[in-house]
Protein backbone atom coordinates (compact mmCIF):
# COMPACT_ATOMS: atom_id res chain seq x y z
CA UNK A 1 0.00 0.00 0.00
CA UNK A 2 1.36 3.44 -0.95
CA UNK A 3 1.46 6.29 1.55
CA UNK A 4 -1.22 8.01 -0.57
CA UNK A 5 -3.45 4.94 -0.20
CA UNK A 6 -2.82 4.95 3.55
CA UNK A 7 -3.74 8.63 3.85
CA UNK A 8 -6.92 8.16 1.83
CA UNK A 9 -7.70 5.04 3.85
CA UNK A 10 -7.42 7.09 7.07
CA UNK A 11 -9.95 9.58 5.65
CA UNK A 12 -12.32 6.71 4.84
CA UNK A 13 -11.92 4.83 8.09
CA UNK A 14 -13.05 1.24 8.34
CA UNK A 15 -15.46 1.19 5.38
CA UNK A 16 -14.32 -0.48 2.16
CA UNK A 17 -13.71 1.97 -0.71
CA UNK A 18 -16.59 2.59 -3.09
CA UNK A 19 -15.52 1.83 -6.64
CA UNK A 20 -15.71 4.58 -9.23
CA UNK A 21 -17.78 4.08 -12.34
CA UNK A 22 -18.28 6.13 -15.47
CA UNK A 23 -21.14 8.03 -13.82
CA UNK A 24 -19.10 9.07 -10.78
CA UNK A 25 -16.17 10.01 -13.03
CA UNK A 26 -18.51 12.10 -15.17
CA UNK A 27 -19.76 13.85 -12.01
CA UNK A 28 -16.19 14.98 -11.30
CA UNK A 29 -16.35 17.28 -14.30
CA UNK A 30 -19.48 19.07 -13.15
CA UNK A 31 -17.80 20.77 -10.19
CA UNK A 32 -14.07 20.37 -10.61
CA UNK A 33 -13.18 23.12 -8.16
CA UNK A 34 -14.62 21.29 -5.16
CA UNK A 35 -11.75 20.01 -3.02
CA UNK A 36 -14.23 18.39 -0.65
CA UNK A 37 -15.67 16.09 -3.27
CA UNK A 38 -12.30 15.43 -4.89
CA UNK A 39 -11.04 14.08 -1.57
CA UNK A 40 -14.19 12.11 -0.75
CA UNK A 41 -14.28 10.54 -4.22
CA UNK A 42 -10.57 9.79 -4.32
CA UNK A 43 -10.84 8.03 -0.96
CA UNK A 44 -13.88 6.07 -2.22
CA UNK A 45 -16.05 7.42 0.61
CA UNK A 46 -19.77 6.69 0.51
CA UNK A 47 -21.22 10.21 0.29
CA UNK A 48 -24.74 8.83 0.44
CA UNK A 49 -23.93 7.21 3.81
CA UNK A 50 -22.48 10.53 5.06
CA UNK A 51 -25.63 12.37 3.94
CA UNK A 52 -27.87 9.76 5.57
CA UNK A 53 -25.99 10.06 8.86
CA UNK A 54 -26.25 13.85 8.73
CA UNK A 55 -30.02 13.40 8.38
CA UNK A 56 -30.16 15.22 5.05
CA UNK A 57 -32.82 14.92 2.36
CA UNK A 58 -31.30 13.07 -0.60
CA UNK A 59 -30.88 14.64 -4.02
CA UNK A 60 -33.24 13.41 -6.68
CA UNK A 61 -32.45 9.95 -7.97
CA UNK A 62 -33.66 7.95 -10.91
CA UNK A 63 -36.82 6.02 -10.05
CA UNK A 64 -36.87 2.21 -10.18
CA UNK A 65 -39.30 2.54 -13.08
CA UNK A 66 -36.84 4.69 -15.05
CA UNK A 67 -33.99 2.26 -14.28
CA UNK A 68 -36.08 -0.71 -15.41
CA UNK A 69 -37.07 1.13 -18.58
CA UNK A 70 -33.40 1.85 -19.28
CA UNK A 71 -32.46 -1.82 -18.81
CA UNK A 72 -35.34 -3.01 -20.98
CA UNK A 73 -34.27 -0.63 -23.75
CA UNK A 74 -30.67 -1.82 -23.53
CA UNK A 75 -31.79 -5.47 -23.72
CA UNK A 76 -33.98 -4.70 -26.69
CA UNK A 77 -31.05 -3.12 -28.54
CA UNK A 78 -28.54 -5.87 -27.75
CA UNK A 79 -30.92 -8.85 -28.12
CA UNK A 80 -30.11 -11.65 -30.60
CA UNK A 81 -26.39 -11.02 -30.61
CA UNK A 82 -26.82 -7.31 -31.22
CA UNK A 83 -29.03 -7.82 -34.28
CA UNK A 84 -31.02 -4.56 -33.80
CA UNK A 85 -27.82 -2.62 -33.13
CA UNK A 86 -25.84 -3.75 -36.16
CA UNK A 87 -27.90 -1.99 -38.88
CA UNK A 88 -28.01 1.18 -36.79
CA UNK A 89 -24.24 1.24 -36.47
CA UNK A 90 -23.76 0.31 -40.11
CA UNK A 91 -25.81 3.35 -40.96
CA UNK A 92 -24.14 5.67 -38.40
CA UNK A 93 -20.62 4.59 -39.37
CA UNK A 94 -21.18 3.60 -42.97
CA UNK A 95 -20.16 -0.05 -42.52
CA UNK A 96 -20.62 -2.85 -45.01
CA UNK A 97 -22.30 -6.10 -43.84
CA UNK A 98 -19.12 -8.18 -43.76
CA UNK A 99 -17.55 -5.83 -41.28
CA UNK A 100 -19.65 -6.92 -38.33
CA UNK A 101 -19.03 -9.48 -35.61
CA UNK A 102 -20.47 -9.66 -32.10
CA UNK A 103 -19.13 -11.08 -28.84
CA UNK A 104 -20.67 -11.06 -25.38
CA UNK A 105 -18.07 -10.51 -22.65
CA UNK A 106 -20.61 -10.84 -19.81
CA UNK A 107 -19.78 -14.40 -19.03
CA UNK A 108 -16.31 -15.70 -19.77
CA UNK A 109 -15.42 -19.35 -19.24
CA UNK A 110 -18.22 -20.02 -16.77
CA UNK A 111 -21.96 -20.51 -16.67
CA UNK A 112 -22.44 -17.53 -14.38
CA UNK A 113 -24.45 -14.56 -15.61
CA UNK A 114 -21.40 -12.47 -15.00
CA UNK A 115 -17.79 -13.53 -14.72
CA UNK A 116 -15.51 -11.70 -12.30
CA UNK A 117 -14.42 -8.23 -13.44
CA UNK A 118 -10.72 -9.11 -13.66
CA UNK A 119 -11.48 -12.10 -15.93
CA UNK A 120 -13.78 -10.06 -18.16
CA UNK A 121 -11.18 -7.31 -18.30
CA UNK A 122 -8.47 -9.78 -19.38
CA UNK A 123 -10.82 -11.15 -22.03
CA UNK A 124 -11.73 -7.67 -23.25
CA UNK A 125 -8.05 -6.73 -23.42
CA UNK A 126 -7.10 -9.76 -25.49
CA UNK A 127 -10.01 -9.16 -27.92
CA UNK A 128 -9.23 -5.49 -28.36
CA UNK A 129 -5.50 -5.98 -28.80
CA UNK A 130 -6.03 -8.76 -31.30
CA UNK A 131 -8.32 -6.41 -33.27
CA UNK A 132 -5.96 -3.45 -32.95
CA UNK A 133 -2.99 -5.50 -34.20
CA UNK A 134 -5.21 -7.20 -36.79
CA UNK A 135 -4.21 -10.62 -35.49
CA UNK A 136 -7.65 -12.04 -36.15
CA UNK A 137 -9.27 -12.81 -39.50
CA UNK A 138 -12.64 -11.86 -38.02
CA UNK A 139 -13.18 -8.12 -37.87
CA UNK A 140 -13.67 -7.34 -34.17
CA UNK A 141 -16.62 -5.06 -33.91
CA UNK A 142 -19.23 -5.33 -31.14
CA UNK A 143 -18.10 -6.31 -27.68
CA UNK A 144 -21.12 -6.56 -25.37
CA UNK A 145 -20.38 -5.62 -21.76
CA UNK A 146 -16.63 -5.41 -22.02
CA UNK A 147 -14.63 -4.36 -18.96
CA UNK A 148 -11.98 -1.66 -19.13
CA UNK A 149 -9.65 -0.24 -16.53
CA UNK A 150 -8.71 3.39 -15.96
CA UNK A 151 -6.14 4.85 -13.61
CA UNK A 152 -7.83 7.38 -11.33
CA UNK A 153 -5.71 9.13 -8.72
CA UNK A 154 -3.19 6.30 -8.90
CA UNK A 155 -5.89 3.62 -8.46
CA UNK A 156 -7.14 1.14 -11.04
CA UNK A 157 -10.86 1.61 -11.60
CA UNK A 158 -12.93 -0.94 -13.52
CA UNK A 159 -15.45 0.49 -15.99
CA UNK A 160 -18.26 -1.48 -17.58
CA UNK A 161 -19.67 0.10 -20.73
CA UNK A 162 -22.88 -1.35 -22.20
CA UNK A 163 -21.58 -2.09 -25.66
CA UNK A 164 -18.38 -0.60 -26.95
CA UNK A 165 -15.27 -1.05 -29.03
CA UNK A 166 -16.55 -0.73 -32.51
CA UNK A 167 -13.65 -0.94 -34.90
CA UNK A 168 -13.70 0.43 -38.39
CA UNK A 169 -10.65 1.17 -40.52
CA UNK A 170 -8.53 0.44 -37.43
CA UNK A 171 -10.51 2.93 -35.34
CA UNK A 172 -12.45 2.05 -32.19
CA UNK A 173 -15.72 3.83 -31.49
CA UNK A 174 -17.52 3.89 -28.17
CA UNK A 175 -21.22 3.07 -28.35
CA UNK A 176 -23.48 4.21 -25.49
CA UNK A 177 -27.08 2.99 -25.13
CA UNK A 178 -29.28 5.51 -23.32
CA UNK A 179 -33.02 5.45 -22.72
CA UNK A 180 -33.69 9.18 -23.06
CA UNK A 181 -35.33 9.96 -26.41
CA UNK A 182 -33.97 11.68 -29.47
CA UNK A 183 -36.79 13.88 -30.72
CA UNK A 184 -36.62 14.97 -34.37
CA UNK A 185 -32.91 14.15 -34.32
CA UNK A 186 -32.19 16.16 -31.15
CA UNK A 187 -31.57 14.67 -27.69
CA UNK A 188 -31.91 16.72 -24.49
CA UNK A 189 -28.57 18.61 -24.51
CA UNK A 190 -27.95 18.16 -20.75
CA UNK A 191 -28.58 14.42 -20.91
CA UNK A 192 -26.53 14.07 -24.09
CA UNK A 193 -23.64 15.92 -22.45
CA UNK A 194 -23.81 13.61 -19.41
CA UNK A 195 -23.86 10.54 -21.69
CA UNK A 196 -20.90 11.84 -23.69
CA UNK A 197 -18.96 12.53 -20.50
CA UNK A 198 -19.55 8.93 -19.39
CA UNK A 199 -18.46 7.78 -22.83
CA UNK A 200 -15.35 9.96 -22.42
CA UNK A 201 -14.35 7.79 -19.44
CA UNK A 202 -14.54 4.72 -21.70
CA UNK A 203 -12.55 6.47 -24.42
CA UNK A 204 -9.79 7.29 -21.93
CA UNK A 205 -9.82 3.75 -20.50
CA UNK A 206 -9.62 2.24 -23.97
CA UNK A 207 -6.78 4.59 -24.87
CA UNK A 208 -4.97 3.57 -21.68
CA UNK A 209 -5.32 -0.11 -22.65
CA UNK A 210 -3.94 0.53 -26.13
CA UNK A 211 -1.17 2.84 -24.90
CA UNK A 212 0.07 0.06 -22.57
CA UNK A 213 0.66 -1.93 -25.75
CA UNK A 214 2.40 0.93 -27.53
CA UNK A 215 -0.58 1.99 -29.64
CA UNK A 216 -1.39 5.67 -30.21
CA UNK A 217 -4.44 7.33 -28.57
CA UNK A 218 -5.98 8.25 -31.91
CA UNK A 219 -6.84 4.54 -32.42
CA UNK A 220 -9.93 5.44 -30.37
CA UNK A 221 -12.20 7.91 -32.08
CA UNK A 222 -13.47 11.07 -30.37
CA UNK A 223 -16.76 10.35 -32.12
CA UNK A 224 -19.14 8.48 -29.85
CA UNK A 225 -22.33 6.78 -31.05
CA UNK A 226 -25.36 7.35 -28.83
CA UNK A 227 -28.20 4.86 -29.26
CA UNK A 228 -31.54 6.21 -27.99
CA UNK A 229 -35.26 5.68 -28.49
CA UNK A 230 -36.45 7.61 -31.53
CA UNK A 231 -39.07 10.29 -30.83
CA UNK A 232 -41.63 8.87 -28.39
CA UNK A 233 -41.36 5.26 -29.58
CA UNK A 234 -39.21 2.41 -28.30
CA UNK A 235 -37.45 2.11 -31.64
CA UNK A 236 -33.72 2.76 -31.34
CA UNK A 237 -31.78 5.27 -33.38
CA UNK A 238 -28.00 5.78 -33.48
CA UNK A 239 -26.42 9.23 -33.70
CA UNK A 240 -22.71 10.07 -33.89
CA UNK A 241 -21.56 12.90 -31.59
CA UNK A 242 -18.16 14.43 -31.08
CA UNK A 243 -17.06 13.87 -27.46
CA UNK A 244 -13.84 15.82 -27.96
CA UNK A 245 -14.76 18.51 -25.40
CA UNK A 246 -15.88 15.96 -22.78
CA UNK A 247 -12.73 13.85 -23.25
CA UNK A 248 -10.56 16.93 -22.77
CA UNK A 249 -12.52 18.02 -19.68
CA UNK A 250 -12.47 14.63 -18.04
CA UNK A 251 -8.82 14.16 -18.80
CA UNK A 252 -8.05 17.52 -17.16
CA UNK A 253 -10.08 16.68 -14.05
CA UNK A 254 -8.49 13.28 -13.69
CA UNK A 255 -5.16 15.06 -13.92
CA UNK A 256 -6.33 17.35 -11.15
CA UNK A 257 -6.93 14.35 -8.89
CA UNK A 258 -3.21 13.73 -9.12
CA UNK A 259 -2.89 16.82 -6.92
CA UNK A 260 -4.30 14.79 -4.06
CA UNK A 261 -1.20 14.97 -1.86
CA UNK A 262 -1.52 18.78 -1.99
CA UNK A 263 -5.21 18.63 -0.97
CA UNK A 264 -4.41 16.16 1.80
CA UNK A 265 -1.65 18.42 3.10
CA UNK A 266 -4.21 21.20 3.61
CA UNK A 267 -6.28 19.08 6.01
CA UNK A 268 -5.60 19.30 9.76
CA UNK A 269 -3.78 16.22 11.09
CA UNK A 270 -6.00 13.24 11.97
CA UNK A 271 -8.93 14.44 9.84
CA UNK A 272 -11.25 11.55 9.04
CA UNK A 273 -14.71 11.11 7.57
CA UNK A 274 -15.09 7.73 9.23
CA UNK A 275 -18.65 7.09 10.44
CA UNK A 276 -17.24 4.78 13.12
CA UNK A 277 -19.87 2.00 12.73
CA UNK A 278 -20.85 0.08 15.85
CA UNK A 279 -21.39 -3.70 16.08
CA UNK A 280 -24.75 -3.28 14.30
CA UNK A 281 -22.97 -1.34 11.50
CA UNK A 282 -24.85 1.86 12.34
CA UNK A 283 -22.71 5.01 12.52
CA UNK A 284 -21.75 6.00 16.03
CA UNK A 285 -20.02 9.25 15.18
CA UNK A 286 -21.61 12.45 16.52
CA UNK A 287 -23.05 14.44 13.61
CA UNK A 288 -21.41 17.69 14.67
CA UNK A 289 -18.04 16.01 14.67
CA UNK A 290 -18.61 14.73 11.13
CA UNK A 291 -19.80 18.19 9.98
CA UNK A 292 -16.64 19.71 11.53
CA UNK A 293 -14.50 17.21 9.65
CA UNK A 294 -16.27 18.06 6.37
CA UNK A 295 -15.66 21.75 7.04
CA UNK A 296 -11.90 21.13 6.88
CA UNK A 297 -12.14 20.33 3.14
CA UNK A 298 -12.91 23.36 0.97
CA UNK A 299 -16.28 23.04 -0.85
CA UNK A 300 -17.28 24.81 -4.02
CA UNK A 301 -21.03 24.88 -3.70
CA UNK A 302 -23.29 25.68 -6.62
CA UNK A 303 -27.04 25.01 -6.79
CA UNK A 304 -26.38 22.43 -9.53
CA UNK A 305 -24.63 20.28 -6.89
CA UNK A 306 -28.12 18.97 -6.22
CA UNK A 307 -28.00 17.15 -9.56
CA UNK A 308 -24.80 15.28 -8.95
CA UNK A 309 -23.68 15.14 -5.31
CA UNK A 310 -25.21 13.49 -2.24
CA UNK A 311 -23.93 16.23 0.05
CA UNK A 312 -25.74 19.04 -1.78
CA UNK A 313 -28.13 19.87 1.07
CA UNK A 314 -25.33 19.90 3.63
CA UNK A 315 -23.19 22.21 1.49
CA UNK A 316 -26.16 24.45 0.67
CA UNK A 317 -26.98 24.94 4.37
CA UNK A 318 -23.33 25.60 5.09
CA UNK A 319 -23.14 28.17 2.24
CA UNK A 320 -26.32 29.87 3.48
CA UNK A 321 -25.14 29.91 7.09
CA UNK A 322 -21.92 31.54 5.97
CA UNK A 323 -24.00 33.85 3.71
CA UNK A 324 -21.89 32.84 0.75
CA UNK A 325 -22.84 34.32 -2.62
CA UNK A 326 -22.57 30.83 -4.14
CA UNK A 327 -25.82 29.90 -2.37
CA UNK A 328 -27.60 32.40 -4.67
CA UNK A 329 -26.56 30.56 -7.83
CA UNK A 330 -23.70 30.40 -10.27
CA UNK A 331 -24.82 33.52 -12.17
CA UNK A 332 -24.79 35.67 -9.01
CA UNK A 333 -21.51 34.20 -7.84
CA UNK A 334 -19.90 34.88 -11.21
CA UNK A 335 -21.33 38.42 -11.36
CA UNK A 336 -19.90 39.08 -7.90
CA UNK A 337 -16.58 37.42 -8.72
CA UNK A 338 -14.13 38.13 -5.91
CA UNK A 339 -16.88 38.90 -3.37
CA UNK A 340 -17.53 35.66 -1.53
CA UNK A 341 -20.15 36.67 1.01
CA UNK A 342 -23.46 38.49 0.87
CA UNK A 343 -22.41 40.53 3.93
CA UNK A 344 -19.39 41.90 2.03
CA UNK A 345 -21.58 42.75 -1.00
CA UNK A 346 -24.06 44.63 1.23
CA UNK A 347 -21.30 46.43 3.13
CA UNK A 348 -19.74 47.59 -0.16
CA UNK A 349 -23.13 48.71 -1.44
CA UNK A 350 -24.08 50.83 1.55
CA UNK A 351 -20.58 52.23 1.99
CA UNK A 352 -19.67 50.46 5.23
CA UNK A 353 -16.74 48.92 3.40
CA UNK A 354 -14.38 50.71 1.03
CA UNK A 355 -13.85 48.80 -2.22
CA UNK A 356 -10.38 47.58 -3.06
CA UNK A 357 -8.89 48.50 -6.44
CA UNK A 358 -10.47 45.50 -8.22
CA UNK A 359 -13.83 45.93 -6.47
CA UNK A 360 -14.59 49.42 -7.85
CA UNK A 361 -16.55 48.27 -10.91
CA UNK A 362 -18.64 45.70 -9.10
CA UNK A 363 -19.31 48.15 -6.24
CA UNK A 364 -20.56 50.73 -8.76
CA UNK A 365 -22.82 48.06 -10.30
CA UNK A 366 -24.16 47.04 -6.88
CA UNK A 367 -24.94 50.65 -5.95
CA UNK A 368 -26.70 51.15 -9.28
CA UNK A 369 -28.77 48.00 -8.66
CA UNK A 370 -29.62 49.30 -5.19
CA UNK A 371 -30.82 52.64 -6.64
CA UNK A 372 -32.99 50.83 -9.23
CA UNK A 373 -34.43 48.66 -6.49
CA UNK A 374 -35.15 51.67 -4.28
CA UNK A 375 -36.87 53.50 -7.22
CA UNK A 376 -39.03 50.47 -7.94
CA UNK A 377 -40.07 50.25 -4.30
CA UNK A 378 -40.96 53.95 -4.29
CA UNK A 379 -43.04 53.51 -7.48
CA UNK A 380 -44.99 50.58 -6.09
CA UNK A 381 -45.52 52.20 -2.64
S1 LIG B 1 -22.39 19.25 -2.79
FE1 LIG B 1 -20.66 19.92 -1.59
S2 LIG B 1 -19.14 18.29 -1.73
FE2 LIG B 1 -20.63 17.96 -3.33
S3 LIG B 1 -19.75 18.96 -5.13
FE3 LIG B 1 -21.12 20.45 -4.17
S4 LIG B 1 -19.85 21.62 -2.77
FE4 LIG B 1 -18.70 19.79 -3.33
Count of individual beta strands: 10
Multimeric state of these chains?
single chain
Q: How many H/I helices?
A: 15
Topology pattern, helix = H, strand = E: HHHHHHEHEEEEEEEHEEHHHHHHH
Please state the overall shape, judged from the principal axes of the Cα atoms: globular
Query: How big is the Rg?
Result: 25 Å
User: Distance N terminus to C terminus?
Assistant: 69 Å
Biggest sheet statistics: 6 strands, mixed
Q: Are any ligands bound, and if so which?
A: iron/sulfur cluster
Give the DSSP E fraction (strand runs of 2 or more residues).
5-15%
Share in helix: 40-55%
Category by helix and strand content: alpha+beta
- Uncertain regions: pLDDT < 50 for 5+ in a row? none
Strand arrangement across the biggest beta sheet: 1-2-5-6-9-10
What is the average of the pLDDT values? Answer: 86
Could you characterize what this model shows?
- The chain has 381 residues and is an alpha+beta fold.
- Helix content is 45%, strand content 12%.
- It has 15 helices and ten strands.
- The protein has helices at 3-12, 22-28, 35-42, 47-53, 64-82, 85-93, 117-132, 189-211, 244-257, 260-265, 287-295, 312-321, 330-335, 342-349, 360-380, and strands at residues 102-104, 142-144, 148-152, 155-159, 163-168, 171-177, 182-183, 186-187, 223-229, 236-242.
- The strands form three sheets. It has a six-stranded mixed beta sheet, with helices on both faces. A two-stranded antiparallel ribbon has the order 3-4.
- Helix 2 crosses helix 8.
- Iron/sulfur cluster binds next to helix 3 and helix 12.
Amino acid sequence: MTSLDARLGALRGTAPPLPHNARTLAALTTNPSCDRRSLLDAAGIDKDALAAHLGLPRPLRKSRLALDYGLAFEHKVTAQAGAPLVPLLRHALGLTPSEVSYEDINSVGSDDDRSPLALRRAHTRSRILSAAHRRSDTPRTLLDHPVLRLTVAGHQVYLEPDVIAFQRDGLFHIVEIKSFPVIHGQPDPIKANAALTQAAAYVLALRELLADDGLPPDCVSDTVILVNPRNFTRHPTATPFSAHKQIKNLSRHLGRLRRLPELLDRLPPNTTFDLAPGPDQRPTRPRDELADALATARPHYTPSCRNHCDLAFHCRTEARNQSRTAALGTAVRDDLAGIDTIATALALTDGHLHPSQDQHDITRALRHAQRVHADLRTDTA
